[in-house]
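re: that chain from earlier
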Amino acid sequence: MIEDNEISDEFEDLEETDDGVLFEHYNVIVDPGQSLIRIDKFLSNRLMNATRSRLQAAAEDGKVLVNKVAVKSSYKVKPGDEISIVMDYPRRELKIIAEDIPLNIVYEDDDVMVVNKPPGLVVHPGHGNYSGTLVNALAFHFKGLPLFDSDDPRPGLIHRIDKNTSGLLVVAKTLEAKVKLSHQFFEKTTKRKYVALVWGDLAEDQGTITGNIGRSPKNRQVFTVFPEGDYGKPAVTHYKVIERLGYVNLVECRLETGRTHQIRVHMKHIGHPLFNDDNYGGDRILKGTTFTKYKQFVANCFALIPRQALHAQMLGFVHPVTGEEMLFESELPDDLANVIVKWRNYLSNRVTQE
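^ sequence. v structure.
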């Protein structure tokens, strides 16, 4: 079974029924590099709105299973463990409604499709976003395909990118393609390159950021870096400076792992948040001068790109049926391209004045 790196569902309240039937609500495969840690601590970091006290109560009630055996909350998870949380009632159903939403299709054949997702488009339905998502668009585009007539809330999805991140995604059109592509992501054999505009002038031209990523205990809507072996999941990001633009840098990021918000969290961790990233502190002036003209310039830049400056530019994988090496690249979206030009002009004018 392929690991779900981005669980964001709410932890359901316990209810009692009379028939004793159990329904699986969550399934998590523990990473190969995970250190020994109590299961209540591990799961509280993985599941939104799941406090340790609620997880402990679920474990005491026999609802937390490891390798199909009920465990107590003090159980220490080990690499490869398959954790299931089961309840006495089925999950709330989420019906996927097909919607005629335009798609920017980069490539398509009988097995896979590669799309270039615009910023602002949510990938799959969830809390607060039950329509208007990429999955709703795929359900319309693939009417009649068995995979998209199922009850799978994420049909065809292999990976995802944030709502306000633009760029390339691969979608499976058959179950065979989904399984084989998922395996490639799990084994980290895919190629992914992102372009980001970050605050500050990085000291080195290139580097590697490592650090476990997990939900922040203070705000579970965002993620943070934890010391190795404490919380979170191992994450590795390689970066290279593409262009130095004074108070901001354009960087290329390559992922070894695919954690939620990974680039955004790692760049903040080293003191270089993404430009206009409102979740991680990049939506205010972090570098530069105190001059009014400069403040207005930055405000104009924020208006040009009202989101984090991040684009999934390159995606590579092995075709699940033909075995062919597939590699796709996309141009920068207009908002990111325009704000880069604006910073180039600012830097050029500043150098000329000096």
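The two ends are 60 Å apart (CA to CA).
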